[in-house]
Amino acid sequence: NATRFALHFVSDFQPTPNILEELMSSGKMAIRDKFMISRLMACSETVNDCFASYKFGDAQHAAYSYWMNDVCDVFLELIKPVVYDKSDENKANRWAAQATLWIAIEAGLRILHPMMPFVTEELWHRLPGRGTLGGAEPKSIMLAEFPECNSAYRNFECEESMEATMKIIRACRSLRQQYNIGNKVLTHFFVKVASGQPEDAAKSQTDDIKTLGKASAVDINLDEESIPKSVGIVVVDEQMTVLMDIKGLVDYAAEIKKLEKQLTKTTNPMQQLEDKMAAPGYEDNVSEEVKTSNQERLDGLKKKATDIEEAIANFKNLAEVEESG
Question: What is the rounded CA–CA span in Å between residue 15 and residue 305?
Fold first, then answer.
């Protein structure tokens, strides 16, 4: 199904015999493209290692994860607006996205072939460009070389960036679901994220966040004064909080009740941890590693509680404003 769907995205794409090398040296790749190629290399390495050690079930799981998680859930969704935009300004981005997808699908079918021989053979022949790649092109997927990992094409930085970006996207989706926002309604998100790699990832992949988060705009680390008071909030972790402008979309009284429940679920374990850390003998009998872990967890719970309390205060203030208005 993924291949049949993807064929629409590459119907006007013409691959070359050395398309992977041309793509990697083109300078046209976005982070999402580099991520996809890196995950392909990772899958190739894992599957080859599993076959070598006769772990066929693990090989199948690795291939399944590649297709479902990396290709379908992430890359295919991210490139939709890129492929649909046929403007001259987007020509380089579109070519890179199509080339990456063609490579990901073609190599992915070769990876799957030992486990799904007949279907992969049929789909492999349906890929655009088949029969035009020169005399060295195999006549059958059975005769094609099995994919191997090129470590030079692994990009751990892009994989980390995509992981951070997907955390934000999942938070955006969670907020939209929590407030029952319709698919056709785009919303404005504000992301508070720690400086360094998480912030760099969010800023470099704002377009990807807008695509999968169904956002009209995404602002990263704005001043508090620039963020509206009418926001829903998801605390992702100690380094990341995502807010969504919900003015005109939400029943504030109902949301206050939801947040008060979240606050109770946060303050109870926080109090238990504080009592545990204040217990007699804690400083002398507990290892430094456990102390550090407990302190980090306590700091995270305190931050989460503070963010929820601020959100409750914002909702109450908005409710008062609406009542007075």
Answer: 53
The amino acid sitting at 246 is I
Phi, psi of 215 (to 5 degrees): -110, 145
pTM greater than the 0.85 cutoff: no
What distance in Å separates the CA atoms of residue 315 and residue 233, rounded to the nearest whole number? 11
In whole angstroms, give the CA distance from residue 83 to residue 95.
Answer: 8
- How far apart CA 2 and CA 14 sit, in angstroms, is 19
Q: Strands 231-237 and 215-220, how do they pair?
A: unpaired
- Coil, helix or strand for 275? helix
Instruction: Please write the tens of the pLDDT for every residue from 116-155.
Output: 999 999 999 999 998 888 888 999 999 999 999 999 999 9
Over the stretch 230-264, which tens digit does the pLDDT of each residue have? 788 888 888 899 999 988 787 778 878 888 999 99
The full length of the chain comes to 325
Beta pairing partners, 240: 193, 237
In three-state secondary structure terms, 85 is coil
| CA-angle at 50, arms to 49 and 54, nearest 5° | 120
Instruction: Enter the tokens of residue 164.
Output: 């951070």
